[in-house]
């Protein structure tokens, strides 16, 4: 492993995980909104999603993130796991996406430490909020 990571690599990691995080939150939000009909949990997921926007706007330059995005060259783009394409019900979909959310929050927390510890702390607090939210959702 290289001893140093260049900024463009960090930007790619942050960009990919911000996207993954917001996508996962949106899927969970839609399940709570349209399947569970839970207004309170839907609102909480929406608040978290908007808080992600506030963190990213405050700490990361969107233009830099987009400039370093290389979706077509991403070596992980064509790596699949058979479980990825199997969902039996809404519960499976929710579980897969809430896991994605937690993992992305952890990655963002760790890589934010390189640029701004305040962002890292905010991602950490959100991760613990998501842990509690996951516990509240009953499918």
Please give a structural write-up.
The N and C termini lie far apart (42 Å). The model has no long low-confidence stretch (mean pLDDT 90). It is built from five helices and no strands. It has one domain (7-71, 90-136). The chain has 139 residues and is an all-alpha fold. It is globular. 74% of the residues lie in helices and 0% in strands.
Brief description of this entry?
Helix content is 74%, strand content 0%. The longest helix is centred in the first third of the chain and has 29 residues, at 7-35. It has one domain (7-71, 90-136).
- Return the domain count: 1
Contiguous low-pLDDT stretches (5 residues minimum) are none
- How helical, in percent, are the residues? over 70%
Number of strands: 0
Instruction: Please give the alpha-carbon distance between the first and last residues.
Output: 42 Å
Portion in strands: under 5%
Output the radius of gyration.
16 Å
Helix/strand class: mainly alpha
**How many H/I helical runs?**
5
Order of helices and strands: HHHHH
Largest sheet: none
Mean pLDDT: 90
Keywords:
139 residues; mainly alpha; globular
Write the SSE topology.
Blueprint: H1 7-35, H2 39-59, H3 62-68, H4 90-115, H5 117-136
């Amino acid at each position: 492993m290289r001893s140093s990571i260049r900024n463009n690599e960090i930007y790619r990691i942050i960009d990919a995980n911000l996207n993954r995080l917001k996508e996962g939150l949106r899927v969970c939000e839609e399940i709570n909104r349209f399947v569970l009909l839970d207004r309170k949990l839907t609102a909480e997921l929406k608040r978290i999603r908007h808080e992600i926007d506030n963190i990213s706007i405050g700490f990361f330059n969107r233009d830099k993130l987009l400039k370093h995005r290389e979706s077509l060259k991403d070596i992980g783009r064509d790596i699949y796991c058979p479980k990825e394409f199997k969902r039996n019900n809404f519960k499976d979909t929710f579980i897969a996406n809430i896991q994605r959310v937690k993992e992305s929050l952890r990655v963002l927390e760790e890589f934010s430490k390189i640029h701004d510890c305040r962002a890292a702390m905010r991602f950490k607090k959100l991760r613990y909020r998501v842990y509690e939210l996951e516990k509240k959702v009953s499918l």
